[in-house]
Amino acid sequence: MGAVASESAGNGGDGPTDQVLVQRAQSGDYRAFDQLVTRHRGKVYAMIVNMIHNDADAWDLAQDAFVKAWKALPKFEHRAQFSTWLFRISHNVVYDWMRKKKVMSEGELDDQMLDSSRIDSAAPTAPKIPARPDEQLVQNERRAEIEKALSQLSDEHRETILLREVQGMEYTEIADIMECSKGTVMSRLFYARKKLQTLLKP
Amino acid sequence: MNNPDESTIQRWLKGELEGNELKQMEAWAEENATELEAKMGWDALGDEIAQALPSEQEPPYADFFNERVKHHAVELVETPPATKASPLWKRFNWILAPTAVAGMVFCFYLGTRIDQETTAIEQSVAVLEEVYTPASGVHSEVIISGDSTVIVLDGLDEIPDALDIVSGETGQGLSPRMMVKTERESFYF
């Protein structure tokens, strides 16, 4: 499993918890919201980049997600964690964008999203852990294979895999974000895994 | 539900299960997620994906990113939705319709004044020129005013009532439209 799913405090150990910041932001304190942006922008941006494979669009969409979050903040009732709620907003922003993009390029093949050879191995999405050049090369090749395999999944299957395996979320959180039942999440997840196993068979 | 067999799991993964069978399968999967994951032999590949793709990545120009969010967010705060019009403004809503009517009347009056002035100008700048016309006894007059040129042909035969310009057929020979078409065809061949 990749990252830790959900930090209960949501603060990584430093500073006030997400809950405290959200309450302050709800009372109009923008600085508190700015702290939340700083704290969560990395996860939101990474998730969107992994979904759409376009750094520039991901930058805009992540921003859009935070602006929408600020706008909807008065309605946030602390039923879910702030990070889960934020991921749900990001999910909607990304799906709206993909829907519009599909309508605009009806019938055209979006090779930018499908062709892994166009993915720059030196892009900022590359793992940050320093490795020997030969190891780095192998890692980049495998990563390109994984991204290519992921791009062959449907949007729903890809998102489920990313939320579970990369973001390390629980089934219930994923169900909350994707607005579907836990059973649907599991079936999507297992289908996606099965397909990835076939696609990534050595 | 007892442990489902492989074919039931496969049908579930493909979304082919329905009704009770689906409910039972989902309930079993939720209770036995760990067992199911082990059964699928996923662990190694799952770890590989987690290592290959970053779970967290700072957006480029992170400070600027925050600034842009703030800029848009603050804009939203300072620009209240249209539905939240002030009560004072709402109180004077009734004045909109009469103001619009008065504006229209004034514009109409202004238009008539300008038209009269323009006619006077046109008359003053009218230039008479001779224009060749195929029919005899037709007098032509060219009026140039600014960017516009108007040619007045006086002495043409009256257009018969039977003429149907749209259909092109008349009881008295070809209509202008048909003539144009015929002319064009003869021009190209």
From TrEMBL, chain A:
Query: Which residues are in the RNA polymerase sigma-70 region domain?
Result: 36-102
One BP term from GO = DNA-templated transcription initiation
Protein name, per record = RNA polymerase subunit sigma
List the Gene3D superfamilies hit by this protein, alphabetically.
1.10.1740.10, Winged helix-like DNA-binding domain superfamily/Winged helix DNA-binding domain
The residues that cross the membrane are none
One GO MF term attached to the UniProt entry: DNA binding
Domain called RNA polymerase sigma factor 70 region 4 type: residue spans: 144-196
Question: What NCBIfam families does the record point to?
Answer: sigma70-ECF
- The species this protein was found in: Rubritalea profundi
From TrEMBL, chain B:
Q: Which domain of life is it from?
A: Bacteria
Question: Which protein is depicted?
Answer: Uncharacterized protein
Q: Which organism is it from?
A: Rubritalea profundi
